[in-house]
Amino acid sequence: MVQYVDDIEEPSSRTPAEWQQIAIDAGLPANNVETITATFCAVQYGNAPETDTRRKRVRAALDKLDDQQEATDG
């Protein structure tokens, strides 16, 4: 998600929730950003296993962000 947002200072000092809000404020679709963030947090900080279903869900959300970026860059 970070690659879709310009002018970020100190990216390593931000929380996933802060990145989520920055991405949404930059115009990325909230549902896709929230899917990526929620899945990351569940696997990274929670007890959720990294499953094929979660990978596919995140990949689909990332693909939609890519599609939007291509349409914008057109």
From TrEMBL:
Domain Protein-glutamine gamma-glutamyltransferase-like C-terminal stretches: 8-63
Pfam family, one: DUF4129
InterPro entries the UniProt entry points to: TgpA-like_C
Top-level taxonomic group: Archaea
Protein name listed in UniProt: Protein-glutamine gamma-glutamyltransferase-like C-terminal domain-containing protein
Lineage start: Archaea, Methanobacteriati, Methanobacteriota, Stenosarchaea group, Halobacteria
